Amino acid sequence: MTTYSRLSTSRTATARAGSNIAFIKYWGVSDPILNLPLSNSISMTLADAYTTTSVDWDSRGNLATDEITVDGKRMAGKSAERVVRHLDRMRTLADQDFRARVVSLNNFPMASGIASSASGFAALTVAGCAALRLDLSPEQLSALARQGSGSASRSIFGGFVEWEKGRDSATSVARQIQPPDHWALFDIVAVVSAAEKPVSSESGHLLAATSPFSAARIDALDMGLTEVRSAIATCDFERLGRVIERDALAMHAVMMTSVPNLIYWQPGTLEIIHAVRRWREQERIPVYFTIDAGPNVHLICESAFRVAVTDRVRALKCVEQIIVSKPGPGPQRMDTHLF
To answer: What topology is assigned to 12-179 in CATH?
Structure first.
């Protein structure tokens, strides 16, 4: 695990953080201000889908406002305001009023259901705190990152991670349950649309309570969490796969029955779901799907079947892009900056 106690001699730092794929999903909040979730969730941090973020705190007072650039575009509106609120949290912790220049790059499509907010806010948190010389523990960083994006709390850790729903801001933090090298799983992301989704996850979480199925899903999650913890500990792939498919479908049932309803799926989403079942049942290829808040499908398999699954996904006409990732580490400090 990366440690964050090294103090910087400047006000600039850069960090790279991996996205994560949730096996048991986070959907719905008990406290929207603090991003306290309705339940625990479990994920795998990704090595090959990540965000790199540089933060430079303007200690000389040259900046009138925060300047935020993501993937070469200057952010404005609600997206920028969300980042500024997170910068404000760090300013409060450091008892400083510096404006910041933030430059961030994703190596995968942003805001399309591949958890770019998780990697983005994890990288922003680590880089911003390091540049402010804040000496925070990983648990404190997880609690802080959670306030920017709930799933970012998990991206503060590598490998297989569980986010405890907690009772308050200090206890709603993630922890690593197994390191990256524990299990050679692969996430093969079948991108059917790289476009930004019309309703953000942040907005969608607020709608979960309007679905008649949300409470039933949450009530049933203890069993799913227990099964996934055990499946990861024992590397029981079939057991893991059955649970992650069921929970992904349950979460999307909540989305589809909220008011207003959220239907993120596209025709290609269903095509891939049916293809996965066909490969598993007819060709005996052990692969299972899961879907975050978007149209793109994550295909989970063990390393021995990575090539077979990737080749089959590539043959599907609905797939625009494929991302293949193994489990990855927690955030890493970088020696070079994006400025």
So the answer is: Ribosomal Protein S5; domain 2 (3.30.230)
Name 225's Cβ contacts closer than 8 Å, sequence gap at least 6: 24, 39, 40, 42, 162
Q: For residue 141, what are the contacts with CB-CB under 8 A and spacing of at least 6?
A: 4, 125, 126, 129, 156
CA distances (Å), origin 152, targets 105, 115, 245, 317, 336: 16, 9, 22, 32, 23
CB-hemisphere CA count at 13 Å for 127? 31
By CB atoms closer than 10 A (0-12, 13-18, 19+), residue 107 is: middle
Q: Dmax of the chain from CA atoms?
A: 65
Query: In Å, what is the CA distance from 62 to each residue of 54, 57, 66, 88, 185?
Result: 18, 10, 11, 18, 47
The pLDDT tens digits for 74-129 are 999 999 999 999 999 999 999 999 999 999 999 998 866 787 999 999 999 999 99
- 190 pairs with which residues across the strands? 297, 322
Percent of residues in the chain assigned helix, strand, coil, to nearest 5: 40, 25, 35
The predicted structure's pLDDT at residue 9: 45
Q: What span, in angstroms and rounded, lies between the C-alpha atoms of 253 and 20?
A: 22
Strand partners, 288: 300
Tokens 């309703």 belong to residue: 199
pTM exceeds 0.90, yes or no: yes
Q: CATH number of the domain at 185-325, out of 3.40.1390.20, 3.40.30.10, 3.30.70.890, 3.75.10.10?
A: 3.30.70.890
**C-alpha count within 13 angstroms, C-beta hemisphere, residue 110:** 15
Q: How far apart are CA 42 and CA 26, in angstroms?
A: 9
Region of 189 (left: φ > 0; alpha: ψ -120 to 50; beta: rest) is: beta
